[in-house]
Amino acid sequence: MAKRQLRVLSVASECAPLVKTGGLADVVGALPAALEPLGWRSRILMPAYPGLLERVGRTRRIWREENLFGGPASVRSCRYEGLDLLLLDAPHLYERPGGPYMVDGHDHHDNHVRFAALSWVGARLAIEGTSDRWRPDVVHAHDWQAGLVPSYLKYAGAQTPSLLTIHNIAFQGIFGPDQLDALHLPTWDFHPDALEYHGLVSTLKAGLVHASKVSTVSPSYAQELTREEFGFGLQGVVSMRGERGELCGILNGIDTEVWNPATDPAIANYSAADPGAKAANRQALIEEFGLEEPAGPLAVVVTRLTHQKGVDLLLEKLPTFIESGGAVVVLGSGDPGYEYALGELAARYPQSVGLHIGYDEPMSHRLYAGADLVLVPSRFEPCGLTQLIGLRYGAIPLVAATGGLRDTVVDATPEHLADGSATGFTFSDIDAGGLGFALGRSVDLYADREAWERLRAQALNTPVDWGTSAAIYAQLFTELI
Predict the structure, then answer these.
(1) Strand pairing partners for 86?
(2) What is the spatial distance between Cα 430 and Cα 377, in angstroms, rounded to a whole number?
(3) Burial class (CB in 10 A: 0-12, 13-18, 19+), 382
(4) Integer angstrom CA distances of residue 52 from 14, 37, 447
(5) Which of 160, 390, 426, 454 has its CA 20 to 30 A from that of 71?
(6) What separation in angstroms does the CA of 222 have from each of 314, 404, 415, 443?
(7) What Rg value do the Cα atoms of the chain yield, rounded?
(8) 106 - beta bridge partners?
(9) What order of strands is seen across the sheet that includes strand 162-166?
(10) Inter-CA distances, 409 with 242, 374, 421, 423, Å
(11) Residue 429 CB: number of other CB atoms within 10 A?
(12) How many folded domains does the chain comprise?
């Protein structure tokens, strides 16, 4: 008899290519394909935001509830671009203007209800199964938006194990204890060892307490979260899970079909074996943004424009980089102050700075393909995908030595350059001085064209797919059951 394929229910607030605000969506969308050859078949539960049901086409109802936190709801099953999706259709919660979390720059007022509902449905599907006779062996909950799934499973006495993955601990899903009854959470468990978080409720803390195991998206981030400067008040519960052997860090990968310079329709194609067309992409990027040919490296920044991402450090040190011969193209949006300051920088150096405020997926592909450097000076970074895409496209990562950035980029020290292991530039003092020194090192190495080409070849040949990490997830799921 053939061995039954094991089943995982992934519960998340976003999933590429349907809905994406950050790296969480890329992980949720890419991991299922990597798990399937290892014996795990995934279904992804996410909200049916406006327009999604029309976009995916034909669906089938596999679960319903007449009153899900204030209105009727159903789960619609479909297959879309290789993904098995379960879309939670609850118009009273998700059919509204704005993005998944915000409208006009402000959080939706009832986000705690919207994502408690997602978690509640995830737990119900794990306990009851679906009308098409599917029930998961493991539930994989992602970030605070699915943080209550392990809690709902525990309070129901369910045996289905759960894994909670922290993609970014800075966002925790906070609400008041007056909402506990309405969200089907027991008031008797409102205390510091369970639901309480400084007099409030944190859905992320609840998940950290109740999940069978906890993971983060890089080994270094797992260690950092046990420290006060990175734990955002949750370092105690993270440390507790670590001391019990219930915490692990698993690096993200990227979808190497989507991010493939050999087949990417947005660029002139090239590969590690034949990188010649990268020069044509570089020239095209210079022309697209009306820049002069720089004497030094052409750097790109593809990011949210926030303090966490070190945008203030870039603003302080990019003038020196430009005056040393470098040029930079920035793609992103975020803090209005940073957007304005970058506009001022572009006006000051119109021949050396390109700027696009907003996000444009095809443009991001063109930036990675044309860049010599990709800059990631984040103050903290759970894993980061930008540097992995940079490696894939031969855009040398220059990164702060934190979280997954530390785990994925080998610094271009003389020793690492000599033994061929270097893949980029890192700096441990995460301040303007540290960034400036790393930028200076990149300009110096770029002047040695032969050394730069060797560094780029090593970057292009660095594995960034899901193979190794998916095997770790598969092993972890197997241990849970």
Answers:
(1) 45, 77
(2) 7
(3) buried
(4) 11, 28, 49
(5) 160
(6) 27, 10, 28, 33
(7) 23
(8) 103
(9) 60-65, 73-80, 83-89, 40-47, 6-11, 138-142, 162-166, 213-216, 247-249
(10) 25, 12, 10, 6
(11) 12
(12) 2
330-385 pLDDT, tens digit per residue, is 999 999 999 999 999 999 999 999 999 998 999 999 999 999 999 999 999 999 99
Contact yes or no for 333/252 (Cβ under 8 A):
no
Tokens of 181: 């009854």
Q: Report the alpha-carbon distance of residue 166 to residue 144 in Å, rounded.
A: 8
Residue 183 lies in a domain: yes
Q: Round to whole Å and give the CA distance between 36 and 91.
A: 32
Which among 366, 181, 190 is positioned nearest to 284, based on CA atoms? 366
Structural domain of residue 337, as residue ranges?
278-460
**Residue in 252, 251, 231, 253 with CA at minimum distance from that of residue 242:** 231
Any idea what the CATH number is for the domain that residue 326 is in?
3.40.50.2000
Residue type, 201: V
Tell me the mean pLDDT in the region 9-14: 98
* 50 and 196 part of one domain: yes
Q: Which of 164, 14, 161, 6 is nearest to 85 (CA)?
A: 14
For 247-276, write each residue's pLDDT tens digit.
999 999 999 999 999 999 999 999 999 999
Which residue bears the tokens 């999933």? 15
Whether 102 and 21 map to the same domain: the answer is: yes
H or E segment and range at residue 141: strand 138-142
Helices (H) and strands (E) in the chain, counts: 19, 20
Token digits of residue 342: 């970058």
